[in-house]
């Protein structure tokens, strides 16, 4: 998979050198979940002791115009502020434990995109992000006393996966602001199984076991091309 990604990147740059008619631009975007609140309600109603958050995604890279309606984009993507909190069920006034897991994902991304002109300054985007990503989980275990004050002892452990493939279909619209700058908005379907990196964490035994944690949501991307 990594060889295919590197080949895609090299092809993108080789295309940019062959003719002056082709253009190379840089892009940066921020993705936020549209359905985060709905997912929060659904998940937490199933387990009142568990709280989750989907997080945000940053990405940046190079966009190469291969054809008047076809672009190749390649860059890096960083998924952050995804967390999972679970408290040990409290039935008495005795001390209890709380586990806080912070998840992140780092990815190399290649993205073929069809860009269809709607008018002189507006284009419709249809594409597919091909990610080669690693999932990372960091867990902190807190022990609380009777007065809800955490003890001075905090245990920490980490776990991560190997790099693996992941796909992100997208659709959006882009507006030309000037000869060198464009802005736009994309809808991206993001699906990440955080259980793959969390499964090797041992602290879940202290809070009564692990509940499933996944991201499967539509993210809104605010994007600038320069």
User: Using only CA atoms, what is the Rg?
Assistant: 21 Å
The SSE string, one letter per element, is HEHEEEEEEEEHE
In angstroms, what separates the terminal alpha carbons? 29 Å
Which strands sit side by side, in order, in the main sheet? 1-3-4-5-6-8-9-10
Task: Flag low-confidence runs.
Answer: none
CATH architectural arrangement: Beta Barrel
Shape, principal axes of CA atoms: elongated
Percent of residues in helical segments? 10-25%
CATH first level: which class?
A: Mainly Beta
Q: What do you see in this structure?
A:
- With 226 residues, the chain is mainly beta.
- It has one domain (2-225): Porin.
- The chain has helices at residues 2-18, 36-46, 195-198; strands at residues 24-33, 50-53, 56-67, 70-87, 96-119, 122-144, 150-160, 164-176, 182-193, 214-225.
- The chain has an eight-stranded antiparallel barrel with strand order 1-3-4-5-6-8-9-10.
- Strand 8 (164-176) and strand 9 (182-193) form a beta hairpin.
- It is elongated and about 70 Å long.
Summarize the structure.
By secondary structure, the chain is mainly beta.
List the SSEs and their pairings.
Layout: H1 2-18, E1 24-33, H2 36-46, E2 50-53, E3 56-67, E4 70-87, E5 96-119, E6 122-144, E7 150-160, E8 164-176, E9 182-193, H3 195-198, E10 214-225
Antiparallel strand pairs: 1-3, 1-10, 2-4, 3-4, 4-5, 5-6, 6-7, 6-8, 8-9, 9-10
